[in-house]
Structures are given as structure tokens and as C-alpha cells.
Amino acid sequence: MYTTEQLQTLFESYLAQTDFPSEPQLLYAPIGYSLAGGGKRLRPMLVLLSHAIFDPNVQQALPAAAAVEVFHNFTLLHDDIMDNAAIRRGKPSVYAKWGRNVAILSGDAMLIYAYRLLSGLTSPRLPQILAAFNRMALEVCEGQQYDMDFEEKQKVSVVDYMHMIELKTSVLLAGAVSIGAMLGGAPDDDCRRLRRFAIELGLAFQLQDDLLDSYGDRQLGKAIGGDILEGKKTFLTVTAMSHADAATRTELRTLLADDRLEPVKKIAAVKAIYDKLDIPHLTQQQIELRFEKALAQLDTLTTESPCTQQLREFATSLMGRKK
Amino acid sequence: MYTTEQLQTLFESYLAQTDFPSEPQLLYAPIGYSLAGGGKRLRPMLVLLSHAIFDPNVQQALPAAAAVEVFHNFTLLHDDIMDNAAIRRGKPSVYAKWGRNVAILSGDAMLIYAYRLLSGLTSPRLPQILAAFNRMALEVCEGQQYDMDFEEKQKVSVVDYMHMIELKTSVLLAGAVSIGAMLGGAPDDDCRRLRRFAIELGLAFQLQDDLLDSYGDRQLGKAIGGDILEGKKTFLTVTAMSHADAATRTELRTLLADDRLEPVKKIAAVKAIYDKLDIPHLTQQQIELRFEKALAQLDTLTTESPCTQQLREFATSLMGRKK
Fold first, then answer.
1. Cα–Cα distance between B242 and A97 in angstroms, integer?
2. Interhelix angle B279-299/B263-276, nearest 10 degrees
3. Pairing label, strands B91-92, A91-92
4. Helical spans, DSSP H, in chain B
5. Which domain holds residue B283?
6. CA atoms within 13 A on the CB side of B148
7. pLDDT at residue B222 tops 70
8. Which B positions 75-94 lie with beta carbon below 8 A of chain A?
């Protein structure tokens, strides 16, 4: 059995040895740049860890792990164009570095490349794996579209918001664990449970991200309040809107839309409303609930393996908690 | 055996019955809009006709034909953003109608949808078919990148230009016939010959397109000279550059780059140079050569079928010639 760190090393060296053609340079160079960007490799690790529960042969799962990571990076390339985002993981985004057209076309090539990695799997369950990947990929597009739709909408309900982040964040994690499990030969029931685990984990993870953006984390040292300054819809805003009286709703809406307010004042004013409505606590409750639900799914797996504990610990560390 | 017209009807009704979700509307509506746009359905017809040579069961080839058509339309959505093209088949492009972000994301969904159609094929040769599709898809991206690169380049050789249009136009036709043939159970040798047929046919078709843009076609009634006005690199320009003396080269380059010249005068001046260098005749020679090479490949197929003649006639009609 490999440790999580060993799996990470195996994955990095697998990814580093993938050879992209050198020409046309503007098509392929951004792919290498984007994949070398690192990030947490959360999704490929979920592929490898859930695969390991059912099959110790990690080698066979590496192309699937890479496919999921390449797909994830494809979404970042295109999202950064749509969101006009110049910075990604502390470096210029592909969009900012090479321009819109290069980011579109290199992104397309990455999506195709993800399918190429998948297509090379030698598994009797290849059609099922492809179907899971296709579903995941389409749902991620749906999530991104809803996210953009929400920017234009005055009213977004908590239910709609949860549905959007399930599509935009959770289904990619769910795709990762399902594909890993299927490839490892998991029984259908266990695939479904792992899927449920990942959906809940994704929700917990995204809500925590929303909370930390406004309330911060001593360890992270990240600038606080970015979402508030952008007037972005998050779990905090939609929950506040649903709990507030009419006057507070109007106040919050006006505050979030105000671009001329001094940043420090805007953040403080919005957070004062959140605090009054007990939003941090309500959000934390949801995070706990979702995370507990996620872990509970792991307890129901019919297949016994020490790797289940490894996956549990990975999920726990992901939430920034002690194992 | 179905007639070509019957196959066209079958394909249109197959495509019309594909059900896209209704929400999110901005993700899925452009897909229906784009696919209903018609066009020649050249690529799916190549799938169906080459499949028919080896297997009369057209039903099984319809999803593959649709996959290739959906892929083709995906490339149009993204190309129109990159080329800033407002009109496609006489209607507003998706990019012009819904904007850049919608065209990016709906295009992505179409690419995924193409894979979904392919993934549903029940063929023992699915991995091989996927590999052919992946190769085709990546090469089409390479072709688009080279095409954009050429716009920035002073000097493009005839060889480089032929390579670019092989990638941008021919490989999609080659992918279509290979996938149709593989799915029909064709021997590898026949797949290779059909591929060669489609590569040459694509080149003949593209060169004819280049020629007609400047010299027109009575039947088409299309405005003449669009490529010249845009200063676009075509077979005519790159051949002229390679045949001209230094002075004429400079003259042609200056003319093509001149945006302030009166359109009628610019077209006449460029065509005068082409005529002096015998470019229309040289292009016509290349078209004949490529088209003959294409048809010759069909004569070498090891599988005997009346459908080979049908494919020959389809290719001939495509070139706007009498059968």
C-alpha cells in the first residue's frame, strides 16, 4: 500500500513524463504551463485513493487520474476567459499570458487530451467510465453557466445556489471517485456511495471556501473579503438574503453592488450584517453537516480496505483539519 | 441499399430527435441553434457512406455520424470567436447572437456531447474509433492554430499552407470516413485507403474553395474577392509568392495589406498579378491532381460494394461536378 505522499509523487512523475508535441507552439506550450502550475492535485488523488480501495495496481489508474486533472485545468483555462481572471495560482493565467484565442484553443486541446488519456484505459468497464466522465463534464459546464447566470440575477435562493455548486464543484470530485472506483472493479453500490461521499465533500469544501473568503484563516494568510468586494453570490450572501427582513435585504443588496465604497468599509459593513444574522455560524453548521454526511458514506462501503481510512484522512486534511 | 438522399433524410431525423436539456438555457439553446443551421452535412454523410461499404445497417452508424457533425459545429462556434465572425451560414453566429462566453461554454458542451455520442457505440472497435476521433480532434486544433499563426507571418510556404489545410480541413473528412469504415468492420487496409481518399478530397475541396473565392462560380452567385479584401493567406497567395520575382512579391504583399484601397480596385490589382503568374491555372491543376488521387484510392479498396460508387458520386457532386 502506498502512502498518500507516495501517490502524489507517482502522479507528479506520471504527469511530468507526458509528452506534448512542440508544434504548434502556441497550442501546446500553454498546456504544459497550466499543468505544471501545481495546485492541490485534489481530483487525481481522489481517483487514485478510491481506486486503491478496490485494486492495489496504482499504475493502471494513473492515466485516469491525469485525465481528470487535465479536464480540471481545461475548465480553468476557459473559466479564466469568461471571468476575465488574470491570475491563477499566483501566476498569470493562460488567458492573461497568451490571450483569449490561445486560451480557447489550448483549452479545447486539453479537453480532447483528457479523452485521449481515458480512451487508452484497458478496462472492460471503459464504456461505463466514459459515460461517467461525459456526465461529469457536461454537468460542470452546466454549473459554470448557472454561476454566470447568477451574476445577472437579483434573487438566488439557497437551494439554487447549492445546486450550482454541486454542479460546479462536487460533480468533478464525484466523477473522480467514481472513475477510480469503477476502474478498480468496485461493485456498483460502492461506486454510488463514493459518489455521494464526494458530492457532500465538495459541498463542504465549497462552503468552507465561501466562509474563509470573508472570515479568513490564520494559516492561509489570504486577503479577506474578495467575494464581498466583487459583490459575488456566495453561500453567505444567499443565506443572508433568505434570513434577512426586507430592509436588511435592501441594505445588503445596495452594499454589495456599491463599487465606490472604500474596500475596508464595504467589507466591515457587509460582515456586520452577516454577524447580525448569525451567518458564519449557520455556514459552519452546514459545513459540519455536509462533511459528516460525506464521511458517513465511507462507513457504508461493502468492500473492506485499509485504503478507506486513507481516503477519510485525505478528506479530513482537505478540510484543513487534524487527521 | 439507401440512396444518398435517403441517408441524408435519415441523418436529419436522427439529429432532430436528439434531446438536449432545456436548462441552463444559455448552455443548451445555442447547440440546437447551431445544429439546425444545416450546412451540407458533408462529414456525417462521409461517415454513413463509408460505413455502408462494409455494413448495410445504417442505424448503428447514425450516432457516429452525429458525433462528427456535432464536433464540426463545435469547431465553428469556437472558430467564430477567434475569427470575430458575425455571420455563419447566412445567420448570426452563436458568438454574435449570444456573446463570447456563451459561445465558449456551449462549444465545450458540444465537444463533450460529441464524445457522449461516440461513447454510446456498441462496437468491439470502440477504443480504435475513439483513438481515431481523438487524433482527428487534436489535429483540427493544430490546423486552427497554424491558420492563426499564418495571419501573423510574412512568409508562408506552399508546403506549410498545404500542411495547415490538411490539418484544418482534410483530417476531419479523414476522421469521418475512418470512423464509418471501422464501425462497419472494414479491414485496416481499407480504412487506410479511405483515409487517404478523404485527405486528398479535402485538399481538392479546400483549394477549390480558395479558387472560387477569388474567381467565383456562376452557380454560387457568391460575392467574389473576400479573401483578397481580408488579405487572407490562401493557396493563391502562397503560390503567387513562391512564383513571383522579388518586385512582384513586394507589390502583392503591399496590395494585400492595404486596407484603404477601394475594394474593386484591390481585387482587380491582386487578380492581375495572379493572372500574370498563371495562378488560376496552377491551382486548377492541383485541384484536378488531388481529386484524381482521391478517386484512385477508392479503386483500390479490397471490399467490393455498390456503395463505393455511391461514395465516388458523392465526392464528385461535392466538387460541383456532374456525376
1. 35
2. 70
3. unpaired
4. 4-17, 25-35, 42-54, 62-82, 94-98, 100-119, 126-152, 158-165, 171-183, 188-215, 226-230, 235-243, 246-257, 263-276, 279-299, 306-318
5. 4-319
6. 23
7. no
8. 78, 81-82
Q: How far apart are CA B118 and CA B130, in angstroms?
A: 7
Q: How many CB atoms lie within 10 A of CB B95?
A: 27
**Structural Rg of chain A based on CA atoms:** 20
How many residues are recorded in chain B?
Answer: 323
CA A279 and chain centroid, separation = 23
Q: DSSP for A33-52, please give it.
A: HHHTT----HHHHHHHHHHH
Query: With an 8 Å Cβ cutoff, is A96 touching chain B?
Result: no
C-alpha cell at B87: 455571420
Give dist(CA B22, CA B29) in Å, integer: 7
| Average pLDDT estimate for A102-127 | 96
- CATH number for the domain spanning A280: value is 1.10.600.10
pTM of the full structure: 0.95
pLDDT at position B19 is 80
Integer angstrom CA distances of residue A299 from A47, A194, A302, A322, B205 = 18, 10, 9, 19, 61
A149/B113 CB distance under 8 A: no
**Average pLDDT, whole number, for chain B?**
95
How many structural domains does chain A have? 1
Q: Do A22 and A28 touch, CB atoms closer than 8 A?
A: yes
Asked whether the beta carbons of B295 and B312 are under 8 A apart, the reply is yes
Which chain B residues are closer than 8 Å to A112 by Cβ? 111, 134, 137-138, 141
Residue matched to cell numbers 486513507: A310
**Which tens digits make up the pLDDT trace of B45-74?**
999 999 999 999 999 999 999 999 999 999
State how far the Cα of B79 lies from the Cα of A104, in Å rounded to an integer.
9
Residue A238 cell numbers, joined: 444567499
From chain A, pick out residues whose CB is under 8 angstroms from the CB of B81: 100-101, 104
pLDDT of residue B220: 56
Q: Give this complex's ipTM.
A: 0.95
